């Protein structure tokens, strides 16, 4: 039976309205990545977050001169705390990430001049991968605000294993006019004294990451992971679906060494 034209027109209008709403709901967060010592600009990050309970996230990394050099996709499935992700650094072809595998999840690392190395891991009940840390903060927010210590297992992809960490609230602060909570993450092991703590600031109202200070996830010109301070803009922006599509297909040509 053919649908009446008015009903069909209404359906089409609803579809396009839904598409427009989805495009308008793409959130764009800009951040500057600064050297921990002298505060010089190393590179920039742009985060696009699609709406939904398990949001798809893309990150584009740009040199200080604006040229894109790396890109990451984070897919919050099967778990918001332990998402799949894939990072590509076009400066030398380095890649790392996590993907589905029989018996668990496969952590892969492809270093320049070497074959891809993989390891299948079972995800611990308190396991956290990449941007899944933000989801873990939101899940445990009431406990953190009460001052309780939250223990997690955090994946270090380059080492292809989880490490025990402890996260705890340090203080309530005003961050550029935004009420926020300062958290500290430290390695929960006897050798933790040898590993720098990570300090994070989250907005109190929506648990949005505002600032990160600790070891960066991208390597510098010497192949090391520098100590950085990542500072996000005060207010997220709204992006279009086309802007996200452009970022996903943008050639990676930057050659910054920072």
Your description of this structure?
- This protein is an alpha+beta fold.
- The chain has one domain.
- Helices cover 16% and strands 45% of the residues.
- The chain has 4 helices and 16 strands.
- The chain has a 16-stranded mixed sheet that branches.
- Strand 11 and strand 12 form a beta hairpin.
- The N terminus is likely disordered.
Features:
disordered N terminus; alpha+beta; single chain; 16 strands; about 260 residues
Give a short synopsis of this structure.
With 258 residues, the protein is of the alpha+beta class.
Could you outline the blueprint of secondary structure elements for this entry?
Layout: H1 5-24, E1 26-35, E2 41-49, E3 56-63, E4 68-75, E5 84-89, E6 94-101, E7 104-110, E8 117-121, E9 127-128, H2 132-139, H3 141-145, E10 150-156, E11 161-175, E12 178-187, E13 198-203, E14 209-215, E15 227-232, E16 237-239, H4 241-249
Parallel strand pairs: 9-10
Antiparallel strand pairs: 1-2, 1-15, 1-16, 2-3, 3-4, 4-5, 5-6, 6-7, 7-8, 10-11, 11-12, 12-13, 13-14, 14-15
């Amino acid at each position: 039976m053919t649908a009446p034209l008015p009903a069909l027109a209404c359906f089409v209008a609803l579809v396009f309205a839904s598409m427009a709403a989805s495009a308008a709901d793409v959130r764009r967060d800009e951040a500057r990545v600064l050297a921990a010592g002298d505060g010089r600009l190393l590179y920039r990050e742009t985060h696009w977050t699609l709406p939904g309970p398990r949001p798809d996230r893309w990150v584009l990394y740009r040199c200080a001169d604006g040229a894109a050099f790396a890109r990451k996709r984070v897919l919050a499935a099967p778990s918001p705390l332990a998402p799949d992700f894939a990072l590509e650094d076009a400066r030398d072809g380095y890649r790392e990430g996590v993907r589905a595998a029989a018996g668990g999840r496969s952590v892969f690392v492809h270093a320049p001049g070497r074959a891809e190395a993989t390891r299948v891991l079972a995800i611990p009940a308190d396991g956290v991968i990449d941007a899944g840390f933000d989801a873990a903060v939101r899940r445990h927010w009431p406990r953190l605000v009460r001052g309780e210590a939250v223990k997690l297992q955090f994946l270090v992809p380059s080492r292809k294993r989880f490490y025990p960490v402890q996260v705890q609230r340090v203080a309530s602060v005003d961050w550029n006019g935004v009420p926020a909570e300062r958290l500290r993450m430290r390695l929960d092991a006897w050798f933790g004294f040898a590993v720098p703590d990570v300090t994070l600031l989250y907005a109190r109202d929506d648990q949005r990451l505002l600032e990160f200070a600790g070891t960066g996830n991208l390597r510098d010109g010497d192949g090391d992971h520098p100590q950085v301070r990542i500072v996000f803009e005060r207010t997220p922006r709204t992006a279009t679906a086309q802007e996200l599509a452009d970022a996903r297909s943008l050639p990676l040509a930057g050659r910054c060494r920072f």
